[in-house]
UniProtKB/TrEMBL annotation:
Family from the record: Belongs to the peptidase S8 family.
Provenance organism: Runella rosea
UniProt name for this protein: Uncharacterized protein
Location of the Secretion system C-terminal sorting domain: 857-929
Matches recorded under Pfam families: Peptidase_S8, Por_Secre_tail
SUPFAM superfamilies membership: Galactose-binding domain-like (SSF49785), Subtilisin-like (SSF52743)
Organism phylogeny: Bacteria, Pseudomonadati, Bacteroidota, Cytophagia, Cytophagales
Segments forming domain Peptidase S8/S53: 166-447
Superkingdom field: Bacteria
InterPro entries in the cross-refs: Galactose-bd-like_sf (IPR008979), Ig-like_fold (IPR013783), Peptidase_S8/S53_dom (IPR000209), Peptidase_S8/S53_dom_sf (IPR036852), Peptidase_S8/S53_subtilisin (IPR051048), Secre_tail (IPR026444), TagA/B/C/D_pept_dom (IPR034058)
PANTHER family named in the record: CELL WALL-ASSOCIATED PROTEASE, SUBTILISIN-RELATED
Gene Ontology MF term list: serine-type endopeptidase activity
Any Gene Ontology biological process: proteolysis
Length: 934
């Protein structure tokens, strides 16, 4: 796991480890023979040293191989071309082809607003890079030796290797970064800084050795790729000086190294990841100014005399940033051209030479723009010589010199340095976009460096900005409420140094390979309480000219979410989480928020009625603070964390000393403590809970007793008159509680519920209360678990009737008693009576006596169920019988009064098929109607 320490402490530990390591090596070299350096160092504590040794071994062997092949193949080691352009052999690639490096050159401090960081610049600060703690932290690797005696340097430029070749380019960049300003037109960005310089030969090995000391290093060079214009070729025809440096065995159309994540890009990412304060700044190259000869014109293959006329990619569009400049954790810088209006800067555009992204896996490159056009600075011809140059080289130096001033400002505030992810994220967070552009692009990255805006975020005089350095653990989610000012966009930028990716294999199938190189994929989101979510910017590598949209960024280790017009005072939620598994289980990150309202944590933690108090009984105390939106509160009891929440109140019921700490995105504050004492007064009822009560039987409820206790019993929330003793004997169901008072405290018991054990049962019949001749009526009553029954006729028990049903054939008063759980209750009585019916003579068919009233039978014919409907205003009980054709009465039923219609149904499914009658009678007269049974 990579531990992130403040830079000051990091330097001290690194220095100590270095000295201990030297002693350790000296001792073991005396006592251990035959062991390799790697074997002696192979301990967990020395992994950084092992990595350096591995880099040194790989790069040294590769360079030795290149020098050996150069003798055999008659390659030049270093060659000076026209206009101070120098090519230097660095190594060989996988195919044994020589790799040559060249520098990237073809009003800076004003264009990037760096002058506002100087004394009198308007911000009230005076930065020039001369802070003692910055000594040895600003470095330059380039193609030669700066003129150390130049009047602009004053002994502050120090050559750290054995280079003897004076270089205009190195002198020019040194001046851009750190010239004193003897000539006011060439004042460097960090005009008081000390600058350490190396030749770019063996750069990665030297960078690895110095990484623990450095904060910023500039690298304005790279491999010769694609089209290369060689003015040194003989002849005057400008079209016959073009060379193609692509590997034609990999691609005949383009140089595969554009956008390519190679082994050196991996090395730079690993170097940055293992040295979390070190930011590598690299130029984006100028390949869009080298687009090859007219189509069909012969050109040379590399620096040979072999020619070709095959049409190849022109380097004039997207995907023209080469090789290691595509590393994730470095700051890749393109060039901007300032637009002057009446002698003042009125905007900018991307220089026509500056390299455009994306990388092959679609990441945003370049990251940032610096001023790269017509930059005047020192050169090596004389101690007072100056010249104007353009290119991403000068843009990169412009940015590097400014970055060290931002580190100086941060150190003066905090007494430690920013992580490299913080420094990188800061300048991307505050970069200026071209007019009418909101998001990033593959042309200008995140925009043009604006040092003034970056410094304002650090100074934060209006408390509208937040800069945080945090870490995200596996499966962790970070959330923070933030309040928008509403008068500026709400901008959140997330930046992190990602573990190195796997280099892309060099094959014909991996040209423009889109395999994603991001290892730890963090995500930032903004949301509100209505369900709206704001996603970060994303670009489409398949359509690189398309403007940025919003979505899930799965490629970049910088993300930015923006709400252009937030609601003033509205609370938004910032969320950071990760996908999949984090390598090493933790990912440090840097977070920037702008456009937020100030917070007052001190006011927020003022306790409402905050004084020592006593808790009475089981009544909780609500500890309330004034609170504020966007704050998180840590509630403390006796100095220990009790709860963390956004709530402005906490219910407490225990004795102790309580306080609350408010934590916001800008502040934190602790409340004054309050002491809470708990009284022993409680109110309890015995028995407690819920149980049944039998009607008319008293239940004894007892309250806890104590000296001087005063009681008041309640039923269903209302006081019971006269119930002021510790014992209550209620006979009615209800919810009972007791209030006990003692001195200044009042306690209320939990309620005890007395439930009625039984409800009075009801007797139901299936056909009414008239018992037909030779018939009976079924009686039923309430049923329930564990119930027993006793039936009574005329108050005399029916000894055989012990169930919930009874078949009654005798008239009289019927009642039933139900017993359950020891309680009994009697039903209301039900009176049954007999109805006399005339006996029909089976000799003749019944005579129809009621002719004016309507009797309906349906369906007719019938198979199963016959419905009898008799429309009448008769007030007597009506019965219906089935009668055979020879006059024999079969089944009979009462008809139920349904308004003006009397109804009932007969089940005739068992009757033999044939013709029958339905006879309806009120005891005085009757009517009949035939039906057919099928």
């Amino acid at each position: 796991m990579l531990a992130i320490l403040p830079r000051k402490l990091f330097f001290s530990i690194s220095s100590l480890i270095g000295r201990l390591l030297m002693v350790y090596l000296s001792v073991i070299c005396i006592f251990v023979k035959g062991q390799t350096v790697e074997t002696r160092l192979k301990t967990p504590e020395n992994t950084a040293g092992l990595r350096h040794l591995d880099l040194q071994k790989r790069y040294t062997l590769n360079r030795q191989k290149a020098l050996s092949l150069a003798k055999k193949q008659k390659w030049f080691i270093s060659k000076k071309y026209a206009k101070e352009r120098i090519l230097t052999l660095q190594g060989v690639d996988t195919f044994g082809i020589p790799v040559y490096y060249t520098v990237h050159n073809l009003l800076a401090s004003a264009g990037t607003h760096t002058t506002n960081l100087y004394n009198g610049g308007g911000l009230g600060i005076d930065l020039k890079g001369d802070l003692p703690q910055l000594n040895g932290t600003l470095c330059l690797w380039d193609g030669g030796l700066p003129r150390l005696s130049h009047i602009e340097f004053g002994g502050r430029i120090r050559q750290k290797d054995g280079s003897t070749l004076l270089s205009d380019h190195a002198t020019h960049l040194s001046g851009t970064m750190a010239a004193a300003g003897i000539n006011s037109q060439v004042k460097g960005m960090a005009y008081g800084a000390k600058l350490d310089v190396w030749d770019y030969t063996d750069d990665v090995v030297e960078m690895s050795r110095e990484a623990s000391k450095m904060l910023v290093s500039n690298h304005s060079y790279g491999p010769v790729v694609g089209w290369f214009y060689n003015e040194s070729r003989p002849g005057n025809d400008p079209t016959r000086k073009w060379e193609w440096w692509g590997n034609t065995s990999i691609s005949t159309k383009e140089d595969y190294r554009f956008g390519f994540y190679d082994e050196k890009a991996q090395d730079l990412d690993q170097l940055a990841y293992n040295n979390p304060f070190y930011l590598i700044v690299k130029s984006a190259d100028n390949k869009r100014s080298e687009t090859g000869p007219p189509i069909g014109t012969p050109y040379f293959l590399r620096n040979t005399n072999q020619t070709s006329i095959l049409d190849r990619y022109r380097n004039d569009g997207y995907d023209v940033i080469p090789a290691e400049a595509n590393a994730k954790n470095i700051l890749t810088v393109g060039g901007a051209e300032l637009k002057l209006q009446n002698g003042r800067i009125g905007g900018f555009s991307v220089s026509d030479f500056s390299g455009w992204g994306p990388t092959d896996d679609g990441r945003i490159k370049p990251d940032l723009l610096g001023v790269g056009t017509s930059i005047i600075s020192s050169i090596s011809n004389a101690d007072n010589a100056y010249a104007t140059m353009s290119g991403t080289s000068t843009a990169s130096a412009n940015v590097s010199g400014t970055l060290i001033l931002l580190q100086e400002l941060f150190y003066r505030q905090k007494a430690y340095f920013m992580r490299s992810a913080t420094l990188k994220g800061l300048v991307l967070h505050t970069a200026d976009k071209p007019l009418d552009k909101l998001g990033p692009s593959y042309e200008y990255g995140w925009g043009l460096l604006n040092a003034e805006k970056a410094a304002k975020v650090l100074i934060n005089s209006d408390n509208n900005h937040v800069v945080l350095e945090k870490s995200l653990r596996q499966n962790e989610t970070y959330q923070q409420k933030i309040i928008a000012t509403g008068n500026t966009p709400l901008v959140v930028t997330l930046s992190w140094t990602d573990p190195e990716g796997t280099p892309t294999r060099i094959t014909t199938q991996t040209v423009d390979d889109p395999t994603i190189k991001l290892i730890n994929d963090l995500d930032v989101r903004l949301s509100d309480d209505t369900g709206n979510t704001w996603f970060p910017w994303v670009l489409d590598p398949a359509n690189p000219a398309k403007e940025a949209s919003r979505g899930d960024n799965i490629r970049d280790n910088t993300e930015q979410a923006v709400i252009e017009s937030p609601t003033p005072g509205k609370v938004y939620t910032l969320t950071i989480r990760h996908k999949r598994t984090l390598q090493t289980g933790t990912q440090p990150y840097s977070l920037f928020i702008s456009g937020i309202s100030p917070q007052d944590c001190n006011a927020a933690v003022q306790l409402v009625a905050g004084k020592d108090t006593t808790l009475c009984g089981n009544i909780a105390l609500k500890m309330q603070i004034k609170g504020d939106n966007g704050l998180t509160y840590q509630w403390m009891k006796d100095g220990q964390l009790l709860a963390t929440s956004t709530s402005t109140s906490l219910d407490i019921s225990q004795e102790g000393v309580y306080s609350v700490k408010a934590i916001g995105y800008q502040c934190s504050a602790q409340s004054k403590p309050i002491s809470v004492r708990v009284s022993g007064l409680t109110a309890q009822i015995s028995p407690a809970g819920s149980f049944a009560i039998c009607a008319g039987k008293a239940v004894r409820l007892s309250a806890n007793e104590g000296l001087g206790y005063r009681y008041q019993w309640q039923r269903n929330g209302s006081p019971i008159a006269g119930a002021t003793m510790s014992v209550l004997t209620p006979t009615e169901p209800g919810t009972y509680s007791v209030i006990i008072r003692s001195n200044s405290c009042t306690a209320v018991s939990r309620p005890t519920q007395l439930l009625s054990a039984l409800q009075q049962p009801v007797i139901s019949t299936n056909t009414g209360t008239l018992i037909p001749p030779k018939g009976s009526i079924r009686l039923t009553t309430t049923t329930g678990e564990g119930m027993t029954y006793r039936w009574f006729l005329n108050d005399n028990p029916i000894t055989t009737a012990t169930g919930a049903r009874l078949t009654a054939s005798l008239p009289g008063k019927y009642t039933v008693e139900i017993t359950q759980n020891g309680c009994s209750i009697m039903s209301a009585p039900l009176i049954l009576t007999n109805v006399p019916y005339p006996t029909n003579t089976p000799a003749t068919v019944p005579e129809i006596l009621i002719v004016k009233e309507n009797l309906s039978l349906f369906p007719n014919p019938v198979v199963h169920t016959l419905t009898v409907a008799y429309a009448s205003d008769n007030t007597y009980d009506l019965t219906a019988h089935i009668v055979t054709m020879d006059g024999v009465e079969l089944a009979g039923k009462l008809l139920y009064d349904n308004g003006s219609v009397f109804l009932n149904q007969f089940d005739v499914s068992e009757l033999p098929p044939g013709k029958y009658f339905i006879q309806v009678s009120d005891g005085r007269r009757s009517i009949a109607k035939p039906f057919v049974k099928q």
